[in-house]
Amino acid sequence: MIGTIARKEFVMLRRDARVRLTAVVLVVMVAVAFLSATSRYKDISQERAAAQALITEQWQSQGEKNPHAAAHYGIYAIRPVTPLSFFDTGVTAFSGVSIWLEAHRRNLPGGRPADDNAAVSGVAELTIAYTLQILLPLFVILLAFPAFAAERESGTLRQLLGTGVTPAQLLVGKALGIAGAVGIVLGPLLLTGLAFLVLLPEGRMLLPEALAVVAFYLLYAGVILFLSLAVSARLASSQAALVVLLAFWAVSSFVVPRLAADMAALRHPLPQLIDFQAALAADIESGLDGRSPAEVIDERRQQTLSLYGVEDESQLPINFQGIIFSLTEQLDAAVFKRHFEALYEKLHSQQAVYGITSLFSPRVAVQLASMQWSGTGLEQEIDFARHAEQFRVEFIETLNRDLTINSQPGQTDYRSGPELWRAIGNYDYAGLGFAAKFFASAPFLLALVLWLGGTTTLAWLAVRRIRVAV
């Protein structure tokens, strides 16, 4: 009986001209977003790979110079891209693509893509993820809203229930029929996207993440499907069901995310850039523990002189200036870490406030999870910045160590060469692993599961009431 109901529902949907038109619009929009994503991935991945290679070449071929001068010459850390990062661009349009790594400074990411398109920076980018988040629920609603209401209006629902069909059979059959119609439309798109990913050498390793993304969007579609069936079974007319569902779609897709973002910004405001930099400068000058850098350096000087049993820096077998540079970097890095981690904590707090609203909007849940699995969420951006800072600290320390050990006290003409520059290594960022992405997206998975459980229960209760009424 369930199969019969599912086939009937599927055939009716396939014959509906409105459904076919909506399906065409969805397919065209996803296809356009897909073609745009593939083109941009090809171009930008090549650009960034070439830029990183050029930066590395410039660093290693800079010629002989003082290591501390080379530290100020610096190097760029460029955030790489993956195929999934163009499925869902997440926060990357509003975060920098590179960080300038130099001595004595921890710089913020620069080169925001949104700055290159300032006129439309406030408009959501047409990505595959955004298209699915907005049009997929609308498509499911248009398929499911007449499932019970239209049959009630035509009088066939009473006849169907009179044949002995149980509420469970009716609900499952209609859900399977509508899901089949959705699958016919989205299945080829999904297989095409996965095939494209597998064909890319750098994409094969991302197949588990891609399947996780698919699972989240299927959950999202399931939530909307059972909510639509519940409303269709509960309301007297298909027109009323459509109005209620479209209102939910609009509020869930646009109103709640906008209000949530504003609420998060008000609840946990970020510092102004000028205030952030002023606080950094003040702590660097005064020191975190109440001791100024000059006091710390003087203490280390006395310790070093005592260690080598000499009375003056000129008698040391090493260049104490290199120790000063290294110690200053350590003190500065501690200040940078405190202030940047406080900034990251505020960003996490904002995301937590935004994420709570996933209990009121399934779109928020799938949006945040999609970004995490695509490697374009907040966690990945923070991890990239931390990784770049760790690389900066290590490469500056390598230069200072060379100056300390290989130059003489007071020597001003000391030069290092390409061997030292090559010893720094190449900057390479691999991103978060599968386990870290799963942990970051777990709250949103829970939210969608709760939504699915809740809407399924509502649909079941609504269908049971139909039987009682008859």
Would you give an account of this structure?
The chain has helices spanning 2-15, 17-60, 67-73, 84-87, 128-144, 149-154, 156-162, 167-199, 207-234, 238-267, 273-286, 293-308, 320-356, 362-374, 378-406, 418-423, 434-469; strands at 75-78, 98-102, 105-106. The protein is mainly alpha-helical and 470 residues long. It has a three-stranded antiparallel β-sheet. A hairpin with a 2-residue loop joins strand 2 and strand 3. Helix 2 runs antiparallel to helix 5, helix 5 (128-144) runs antiparallel to helix 14 and helix 9 packs parallel to helix 17 (434-469). The protein is elongated. Residues 118-123 have low confidence and may be disordered.
Question: Could you give a quick summary of the protein structure above?
Answer:
The chain is mostly helical. The protein is built from 17 helices and 3 strands.
Could you outline the blueprint of secondary structure elements for this entry?
Blueprint: H1 2-15, H2 17-60, H3 67-73, E1 75-78, H4 84-87, E2 98-102, E3 105-106, H5 128-144, H6 149-154, H7 156-162, H8 167-199, H9 207-234, H10 238-267, H11 273-286, H12 293-308, H13 320-356, H14 362-374, H15 378-406, H16 418-423, H17 434-469
Antiparallel strand pairs: 1-2, 2-3
Helix pairs in contact: 1-8, 2-5, 2-8, 3-15, 5-8, 5-9, 5-10, 5-14, 8-9, 8-17, 9-10, 9-14, 9-17, 10-13, 11-13, 12-13, 13-15, 14-17
